Write the structure tokens for this entry.
Amino acid sequence: MEATNATETLTEAEALESRNAIRCIKVGLLLSRLQPSPNRRLNTAIDHQDTTPEKEEELKREIGDLKMEVVRERLRNKRIKLCGLLELSLEVSLLILALSTLLFAIAFGNGASSVLRD
């Protein structure tokens, strides 16, 4: 059961990373379209004519939306890491509690049986 949970967590993490990578690539492409290099602007007049203020506003809005999605994904990843850390600390504390209970039972169990024998 533990192995399947670890595999599912791993695949979810990989999926999040790939989605983040795709979003970053989209943001990069949109930024490159929004601010073309000076050489390309001088060489092609078609690119300059193709860019309208409405299109630039739409690209800016889309870039803003993608940036917000990236921030949300980062926060979600931080939350997942925090939950994993809390789960690990809980499991360790339960293990320590179980071991201390076992040692307590062994220590006082043997002492009680020796008292009853006498």
Observations:
- The mean pLDDT is 78.
- The chain has one domain: 2-89.
